[in-house]
Amino acid sequence: MYSHILIATDGSELAQRAVEQGLALAKALNAKVTAITVTEPWTAAVSGEWAVSFPIEEYEKGAAAGAEKILVAVQETAERMGVQCNGVHIKDQYPAEGIVEEAKALGCDLIVMSSHGRRGIAKFMLGSQASRVLAQTTVPLLIVR
Q: Mean pLDDT of residues grouped by 10 in the chain (145 residues)?
């Protein structure tokens, strides 16, 4: 059925549910797993006066440390579940685009990620990365709520 599952996470509690679901599915199918986390470009994360007081080097260090923490947590969960998992940090990308591009580059046949379940004005203003991935990918997508 699926042989290579890409699990996208931002390290949130909700994303952890998607990690667990993706790893359980991978175990049941004996599928390969790649976990990814994506950090946005510095210019998207910091603008205006903050850019002067928060230099790019600091942003990149913080992003790398945050990504490492997220991926180590996923790999620890995978080990507990008896699943082999590789971790990848995608830098300087918007999450949806990074997820779609990495899934394609790695030849993944399923993407697993969470939906943050925003509604109303929050959904309109902030959008949904899951919706964006769904709109951009040709790879099947499992969204965990």
A: 96 95 98 96 65 75 96 98 98 95 98 75 60 95 93
From the list 16, 44, 21, the residue with the least C-alpha distance to 31 is: 21
The dihedral of CA 98, 136, 22, 19: what is its sign?
positive
Measured CA to CA, the distance from residue 31 to residue 37 in angstroms comes to 19
Residue 36's contacts (CB-CB under 8 Å, 6 or more residues apart) are 6, 7, 8, 9, 87, 88, 89, 90, 98, 99, 102
Three-state SS at 50: helix
The single-letter DSSP state of residue 7 is E
- pTM comes to 0.87
For the chain, domains (ranges, CATH) are 4-144 (3.40.50.620)
Which pair of structure tokens corresponds to residue 120?
A: 């109303």
